Each structure stands twice: as C-alpha cells, then as structure tokens.
C-alpha cells in the first residue's frame, strides 16, 4: 500500500489506539439520540480534530499534501460514451493522468453503463471520480476468484492510490450469487489506498462486494449490496448514513474485518446506518477474519435478518478473547441484544465515542468536504 506516513507517525498512531477504545476527550459531548448524532457531528469533528494536530504536523513534514482543499491547477477530464467528452472510456481517462500525479484531477463520467475494469495505481494521487448520479452512471464487470485466481484481482474497480474520492457513481461485479462452491468471491470495489472517500456511491455484488482492504476510508450516503462477507478486509473505515442491503443467501455476514494484532489500528465503524433486506434471521454482524477483528455499529437500524447471536468467531474460540465487537444505541427488530454472543459488547458512551466521529479516521487530516 502507498504509505504517506513516516514511521514516526505510524508508531504514534499505534500507541494511541490500544485494543480497548479510549474516550476521545471530556470536552466532546456524546449525543443521546440518533437525531443528535447528525446535528452534533460537525462539532465532534472539531473537538476530535484538535487531538490530531500533532499528527497533522507530522504528516505534512513527511511530505504529504499541504492544502487538500486547494483546486489550483485542477484538471477536469470528461468521459462520455457518445463521444462528446474527452474520452469514451474510464480507462482512457485514468491512463491520461500522469504517473506521480499530485495535482487535483476530476474525472467526470456522464450517464451510462461502462463495461470496464479499472485499477488506479499507487502513484496517481488526488483523483476524484464524479458520476452523474449512482442510478445513471455505472461501471461494471463480471469476474470471480475462480477465473482470476485471487479475490484481490476480481475487482471491477481497484484503488491503490491515496487521496482518491468517488462521488455519485456505482460499481458492480455482476458475478452470479454463490451456490456453495469454492472461489466465488467477486469484488465490485477494492480500496487499498490511504485517505479514500466515497460519497453517494453504490456497490453491487454478492460475495465479497466491498474489499475495504487497507488504509483510512470514509463512506457516506453510500449503498452496499451483497450477501456473504460483503464488507471485508483490514481497513480503518467510517461508514456514515450508509445502507447495507442484504441479498438472501441462507447465512452470510455483513462484515469480515481482518485486524491481525493488538498493535494494528484498524476496524470498521458504522454510524447512523441502515441494514435492510429480507429472508431468515441468519446474517451475522461480523465474522472474525482476523484474530483482533474490530467492528462497531452505532445508531444503526437493523431489519429482522440478523442472527440473534450476532457475531461469529470464525471457528476459533481463542478469537472471542481478542476481537472487539460492539453495538451502541442500535434499533429495529434485528438489533435486539438479548441473545448476542457473550464476548460482544453493548458499548458505554466512552467506549463508543472514538468510533463515532471523523476523528476515528483522522478526518481532520484529509476529509475536505462532506
Ligand atoms: C450525489 O450524492 C449526494 C450524497 O453524497 C446526494 O445528496 C446527491 O443528491 C447526489 N447527486 C446526484 C446527481 O445523484
């Protein structure tokens, strides 16, 4: 993965997040209701942001970008299938971005279904992919691990670069639903770059739809459709106001987070999200792909499709003592915690707070607009 951090920053960042989440700061008020989460979010960002001033200075010294909000020198490339833009395919537009790019570039993709597979390489920074709306601009392909050899290489769209943003566009892997056979993983989007953000997007797939692989990521107002392990990997991500739409599969899991050790600072946090779908109440909130897997759902509404036990240890009881799984003020028929695994938590205010703001993903360093 592209590392924009100096080793000093990585060390500091590891030390400040041990397995048990620490309270953010006593100055930050914890919202009591779901409505207040929305209202207070910006205040939280400011409060938590102050804590990260030291990170910010270190990151800038390490050579990352001075002013991410600056549009000076921005280039706009238009993709249109009918030929009225600069290019007819998304790949041509990405190919036109010079290697080692650090200038802001927006690739606008007009309405259409683009049958392509794209990889944004590590060295092409600061690209924004802007669709005309997630219902009208779609990039799609069809490949499962059985064909490409690995899950990683199945992605319709793969991001290895830092500072990548996508808005109002959908990504699909149209592989058929898994039928119990091997190698049916089929990724719609992989994000392996640090500081990647997705606003108003949609990801469509079945097994392994969203490979939230590595780095700090922000997903907002985004739809994720899938069945088995459909958000998975070792990223550190905040999902805000997102919908997770479950396709019936006779089981499955919303997440498979892969945090590997106590010193690793990753995990998924879902705030103010909605889990929808139909079928039996057999879907896990998470399965422990990594022994220190970390997943929190806060203020999230669950349809009646959640396995009452909630969480699965991936067949390894030792993981029950090392994972960190929790709910905070969730609601809806699938939220009932009466029969949840004894090793999962209803979080206290102080435990939940660090997971519920942009501070969780060091947003003050890089999130430039909502
Ligand atoms: C783009 O996404 C935002 C959410 O991030 C949404 O409010 C807006 O309506 C979308 N615009 C279009 C054209 O789809």
Automatic annotation (TrEMBL):
InterPro entries per record: Pectin_lyas_fold, Pectin_lyase_fold/virulence, Pectinesterase_Asp_AS, Pectinesterase_cat
UniProt xrefs under Pfam families: Pectinesterase
Catalytic reactions on record: [(1->4)-alpha-D-galacturonosyl methyl ester](n) + n H2O = [(1->4)-alpha-D-galacturonosyl](n) + n methanol + n H(+)
Single GO BP term: cell wall modification
Enzyme active site: 229
Boundaries of every Pectinesterase catalytic domain copy: 77-363
PROSITE patterns: PECTINESTERASE_2
Enzyme class: hydrolase
Keywords: Aspartyl esterase, Glycoprotein, Hydrolase, Signal
Signal peptide coordinates: 1-26
EC numbers: 3.1.1.11
Gene Ontology MF annotations: pectinesterase activity
Taxonomy, superkingdom: Eukaryota
Biological or metabolic pathway of the protein: Glycan metabolism; pectin degradation; 2-dehydro-3-deoxy-D-gluconate from pectin: step 1/5
Protein role: Acts in the modification of cell walls via demethylesterification of cell wall pectin.
Family in the record: Belongs to the pectinesterase family.
Protein name as annotated: Pectinesterase
Organism encoding this protein: Ceratodon purpureus
Lineage, uppermost ranks: Eukaryota, Viridiplantae, Streptophyta, Embryophyta, Bryophyta
